[in-house]
Amino acid sequence: MPSSDARSAFDALDNQAIRLKQRHFKLSIDDAPRSIEMADLIAQIPLDGRMCHVRDAEYLNWRYCNPRSAYRFLFWGERELQGY
User: pTM for this one?
Assistant: First the structure.
């Protein structure tokens, strides 16, 4: 479980997320990854010939499912994810 300091920091982010939704900003904060959209965005990055890890939706779901950790994700974009 996250410490109380981490929890209070997340409380501040969660409160900010509510304000952002009310104002319809392109920035949103969530506690769950948008794995499919994140993987689609990653797939748009051009390869430069170096080896790299596979970062598909399955990997992202696995990466952020640790029950002992808490996460917050900042997403940019309204209809289509433009950044995270």
Answer: 0.72
CA angle 15, 16, 22 (to 5 degrees): 95
Query: Which tokens sit at 38?
Result: 């994140």
The answer to whether 27 and 76 have CB atoms below 8 angstroms apart is yes
**CA 51 to CA 60: how far, in whole Å?**
18
pLDDT digits (tens, 9 = 90+) for 32-84: 999 999 999 999 999 899 998 899 999 999 999 999 999 999 999 877 899 99
Strand partners, 73: 30
Question: Distance between CA 63 and CA 81 in Å, rounded?
Answer: 19
Domain spans of the chain?
Answer: 4-76
Reading the block at residue 34, the tokens are 């948008």
